[in-house]
Amino acid sequence: xxxxxxxxxxxxxxxxxxxxxxxxxxxxxxxxxxxxxxxxxxxxxxxxxxxxxxxxxxxxxxxxxxxxxxxxxxxxxxxxxxxxxxxxxxxxxxxxxxxxxxxxxxxxxxxxxxxxxxxxxxxxxxxxxxxxxxxxxxxxxxxxxxxxxxxxxxxxxxxxxxxxxxxxxxxxxxxxxxxxxxxxxxxxxxxxxxxxxxxxxxxxxxxxxxxxxxxxxxxxxxxxxxxxxxxxxxxxxxxxxxxxxxxxxxxxxxxxxxxxxxxxxxxxxxxxxxxxxxxxxxxxxxxxxxxxxxxxxxxxxxxxxxxxxxxxxxxxxxxxxxxxxxxxxxxxxxxxxxxxxxxxxxxxxxxxxxxxxxxxxxxxxxxxxxxxxxxxxxxxxxxxxxxxxxxxxxxxxxxxxxxxxxxxxxxxxxxxxxxxxxxxxxxxxxxxxxxxxxxxxxxxxxxxxxxxxxxxxxxxxxxxxxxxxxxxxxxxxxxxxxxxxxxxxxxxxxxxxxxxxxxxxxxxxxxxxxxxxxxxxxxxxxxxxxxxxxxxxxxxxxxxxxxxxxxxxxxxxxxxxxxxxxxxxxxxxxxxxxxxxxxxxxxxxxxxxxxxxxxxxxxxxxxxxxxxxxxxxxxxxxxxxxxxxxxxxxxxxxxxxxxxxxxxx
Length: 649
Prior knowledge:
Blueprint: E1 21-26, E2 37-40, E3 44-52, E4 59-64, E5 67-69, E6 73-76, E7 82-89, E8 98-104, E9 112-130, E10 137-138, E11 143-152, E12 156-161, E13 167-169, E14 173-176, E15 185-193, E16 196-197, E17 201-205, E18 207-217, E19 221-225, E20 230-239, E21 243-250, E22 253-258, E23 263-265, E24 274-284, E25 287-292, E26 296-305, E27 310-316, E28 321-330, E29 334-342, E30 345-350, E31 354-355, E32 358-360, E33 364-365, E34 371-378, E35 388-395, E36 398-409, H1 414-455, E37 457-458, H2 469-488, H3 492-503, E38 510-514, E39 519-523, H4 543-548, H5 554-562, H6 576-580, E40 587-588, H7 590-594, E41 605-606, E42 609-610, H8 618-630, E43 635-639, E44 644-648
Parallel strand pairs: 2-9, 10-18, 19-26, 27-36, 37-40, 39-44
Antiparallel strand pairs: 1-3, 3-7, 4-5, 4-8, 6-7, 8-9, 9-11, 11-14, 12-13, 12-15, 15-16, 15-17, 18-20, 20-23, 21-22, 21-24, 24-25, 24-26, 26-28, 28-34, 29-30, 29-35, 31-32, 32-34, 33-34, 35-36, 38-39, 41-42, 43-44
Helix pairs in contact: 2-3
């Protein structure tokens, strides 16, 4: 019996099975890695990640630390295990990092991984750290050093000093308490392990200390002949290196003889004898540190020496005179004075002896080392003792001859000296007073000249005889018109012409001298030029004025026109135009002269009137009046409100 059959398409049934285990192993040996992966620095290792079982095969990933690494190769081995391999280069920087293999599979609910750590072994490296700066390290300070080592496996540490090889410490820390100058130097730190030794690292410990003089010489006492060469040596240590200075102790004080390590004197003289000291100096923390050596005594010996070949000595007539010569010698020489007493006869006097009023005293020590004074004493000095005296010095090393010129002077008594001092003082005082007076006078003249320059010229009308009150009124009117002309600078010519025609007045170089009591007015013979004057009027001293001025007699006109320079002695002042004669200056009003606007010349005012002191001489005015009276001219005195005026008729 046939049946109808229905058949489906074939289907695949896959069973997913997770891996049973994942582990790491060394590729070369196949040894499973149970702990750290140890390898020396610089080597290369291959690692396998093995996943057992699993359907389908799991996906394997490698991580070094947090960094994903690319696998070298992967696949399934004969046992059916899935294997992934990587290659690692062992470097010091990778030491201690983790190596991890991660397996992912669809049948796993969570990720499965396996990991290990790298143990890279390397030789030590060291570096030195300091707890404090080692610059400007002074004695007594504390130094702490530390030797920091980088190695695997761990290392042993040693500190040793350069040069001696002495091991000063076997620990990482090294400390010097109260460091001394002897501990200065270079110190090394070195580490050792199973793979080798580190390169040694060093540090320099520089200890600052004051100079120490090691030697000075050639010996504590040096004896050299005059004129020879001498060398003194000095050796000192210090940090920083010291500088040197040689000091000589003399009777005058300390003298710097050199600033080098060795003192070289090419040619010895007696002044070089004395005590010498070497000084070594350096600076620590900006403070000078000085060390002094023991003294070296230098002794110079040789023939006698006198600094000057010829000298002069003054002695006083009638008194006992002494002629002294300083000489230097070692040993002390024999001294002999040679004296020419009579023509052709010479007296020789040795030390400690005398002859005919001459005596040679024993040599006395002077202030200088190895130097002495040889003295010839002359009793009751006479004019005949004026001469040249020769002294001979001689010892076993040589001889020296010296000449002394003796000059004779008169005795000055105490009274003479006092009188001379007093006279000199008085002379100086007189000279000083004279200079002070000259300065004061010059100062006054300068101030007066400055006042005159500021004041300018004064223009005052002068006239002939005025015989009535009407004429006096005309005079006042004329003066007022002149002041108005000066102030406004207008109508000068008209005013001048009007005044001249009525009263014989003139504005041409009129000169006025006023005192506290009176004013004498007259005209000089010259004419000043004024830029404000358009019409010139003849003055009374001109030929025309002499002919037409009835108020002036010929003799009076001649007398007062000829007198150009007039000086006065009472309390009088005069304008610059009056003093300088023919110099033309612009006219200035009476008020401008008496009451100047400049504050510096307020002194020109005096009790409401012009102070014209020291510029004129009132006696000259009296002489003019007297001459006119003798000539028969009438001289009358007219009083006005402010002052009075002399007029001639």
